[in-house]
Amino acid sequence: MPRWYDEPVKITFSAHARQQLRERNLSEAEVARAVERPERIAAQSPRRYRVLKNIRRERKSYLLVVICDRRNSTVEIVTAFLTSKLKKYL
What we know:
This protein has about 90 residues and is of the alpha+beta class. It is about 25% helix and about 45% strand. The chain is built from 3 helices and 5 strands, in the order βααββββα. The chain has a 5-stranded mixed beta sheet with strand order 1-5-4-3-2. The mean pLDDT is about 90.
């Protein structure tokens, strides 16, 4: 799937997102890869997007859900989480 933005963007993380990533054992690199190469994107408002990426951990399939705001050439990660409820989000 092609990138969902036309020009290169800077990916930043809110303080809330960094805290949530630590608590949920997710890395910034893992989340940035999802934003750069998503499998599905859904606009939630004119600037807010839900980015979805399938990942495998310990031989199980999960969906990485990333909520982010797009402002010009910056994508700010608001939060991210893993879910095993693939059908709920796909």
